[in-house]
Specification:
By secondary structure, the chain is an alpha+beta fold. The protein contains 15 helices and 27 strands. The protein has a 7-stranded antiparallel beta sheet with strand order 1-19-20-21-27-23-24. A 5-stranded mixed beta sheet has the order 17-18-22-26-25. The chain has a 3-stranded antiparallel beta sheet with strand order 10-13-14. A hairpin with a 3-residue loop joins strand 15 and strand 16. The protein is globular, with a radius of gyration of 22 Å.
Length: 477
């Protein structure tokens, strides 16, 4: 049986790596880490033969299952790996299983047999559930639409139902709205939950710390992101009046981050509130931290506070568990810590990382290199792909080829002073080429061109790259 499984995994790798993305740079260890992470992640993909359909592992190793939080975080990495059909199937499974019988929850974890994983589920009245999960799915389903352009994420009846129930009935039923959450009772809708008790509805992803959690900042942040994502979906589907309501809820919910989670005296954010009314701040227990979530979900707006959090992670990250550490490299890349981010990716892929085989590790490394180091972001709603080099040194270089995006593929190369973009799609695409720093002019395909500047002060130009065409943007010497 073991030999047969290895042969199947080898066949899967041959299928995907035959046309998979390749990464090369002047950093040999980073190149090796990319290959290890790509192959490891693809070994977790299952293409056919299971009742659940196409899926990949996104839970504790050897669970043969996928969990809402893990799938949400692994999804962009999976898309980069060419696992778009797997993503769509798995997200539809979560969306389809939302139920009034489960108080508007879905199944927290689904196994290969298309059943709720027994380790987390006894019955519809007795199961494990982390309440941020619905909002994680909404936010990341929208991100998948933007990356792929697949309108199924906007229009499929299961998604439309899940989005509406999650952002309305679910919020109200579990008292998670901005006008309810700070006064809510910790025990809700769990009277018949004998095995899992109050874990049927945990208002955080925190499962440790020094007591029973009443509320986590990672409950507030994904709700902000989900409101914004749902507002965008509503606008894209011509339901502008409903979108305005969601935008206002996002604004009001985001205020909680400032008047409740920010400690004005200590000048730092709290992470977790316990039942006794006390708080943990940065560290929760010996090996957990949760302030990466508001950054990941785009809920924090103050650059100086984000910088403070990044500096603390730079000091503390070695002691944090891999599930939470897997959020960090892209945060370091996006906040001027490229050398640390690259070193961290290499460390996460080393054999002495005893938990490197956790699926979330390898999948997210694909996103860290693609979106973090290479600065590739995709917006189907405007048919735009942006790039920004985050190489640490001027003489560094890196290239990433055949990245799935918008139903086709692209390739990007960064050299110290410029970027080359190749469009392998069957249609033109808008390329937003961002070059770090203040530059009044950039050289665009050999022509000196006036720039604009983004909110971070970086120069950019937008140009249309035709199907199977290449463009180059560089600093004007």
């Amino acid at each position: 049986m073991k030999t047969k499984r290895l042969l199947i995994l080898g066949f899967i790798l041959i299928i995907y790596t035959g046309h998979a993305q390749t990464f090369h740079s002047n950093n040999t260890e980073l190149n090796e880490s990319f290959v290890w992470a790509r192959n490891k992640a693809l070994s977790f993909a299952h293409n056919s033969g299971d009742p659940v359909g196409m899926w990949y592992e996104a839970a504790l190793p050897n669970r043969e299952a996928f969990c809402m939080r893990d799938v949400s975080h692994q999804a962009i990495g999976a898309e980069i790996l060419g696992l778009g059909k797997h993503n769509l199937n798995m997200f539809i499974k979560f969306a389809s299983n939302i139920s009034t019988q489960r108080d508007y929850c879905s199944y927290w974890e689904i196994n290969r047999y298309n059943k709720p994983a027994p380790v987390d589920y006894t019955s519809d009245k007795d199961f494990w559930y982390n309440l941020p999960a619905n909002f994680d799915i909404v936010y990341n389903a929208y991100r998948l639409y933007e990356w792929t352009g697949d309108v199924t994420y906007l229009n499929h009846p299961a998604f439309r139902n899940f989005y509406s129930l999650s952002m309305n009935e679910y919020v109200h039923h579990w008292q998670l709205g901005y006008d309810q959450v700070l006064g809510r009772k910790r025990e809700l809708h769990n009277e018949a939950s004998k095995r899992f008790g109050i874990n049927r509805g945990i208002p955080t992803y925190n499962e440790g710390g020094r007591g029973e959690t009443k509320l986590g900042i990672d409950m507030t942040a994904p709700l902000v992101a989900a409101y914004r994502a749902y507002a965008a979906i509503l606008n894209l589907t011509h339901r502008e009046n409903e979108a305005l309501i969601m935008e206002e809820r996002a604004r009001r919910t985001a205020q909680i981050l400032e008047y409740f989670w920010w400690d004005q005296q200590k000048k730092e954010y709290k992470s977790v509130q316990y039942m006794d009314g006390t708080f943990d701040y940065f560290m929760v227990g010996d090996n957990q931290a949760f302030l990466q979530y508001p950054i990941y979900f785009g809920a924090f707006q103050d650059p100086s506070r984000i910088r403070q959090i990044v500096d603390t992670y730079r000091e503390k990250y070695p002691q944090i568990i891999v599930e939470l550490k897997s959020y960090l490299p892209i945060i370091f890349f996006e906040n001027g810590e490229s050398s640390l981010a690259s070193r961290m990716i290499i460390e996460l892929c080393q054999p002495d990382n005893k938990r490197r085989d956790y699926p979330e590790n390898s999948f997210t490394i694909m996103e860290h290199i693609t979106r973090g180091l290479m600065g590739i972001n995709v917006m189907a709603s405007t048919n735009t792909i942006s790039t920004q080099s985050r190489l640490a040194q001027r003489d560094d270089w890196a290239e990433l080829n055949d990245v799935p995006a918008l139903g086709g593929k692209i390739s990007v190369r960064h050299d110290g002073a410029g970027t080359t973009f190749t469009n392998h799609l069957q249609k033109p695409v808008n390329w937003k080429a961002i070059i770090a720093g203040q530059h009044d002019y950039l050289v665009v395909n050999g022509t000196k061109t006036r720039t604009e500047h983004d909110e971070n002060g970086n120069a950019f130009v937008v140009l249309t790259i035709g199907s199977h065409q290449t463009g180059k943007v560089a600093i004007a010497e």
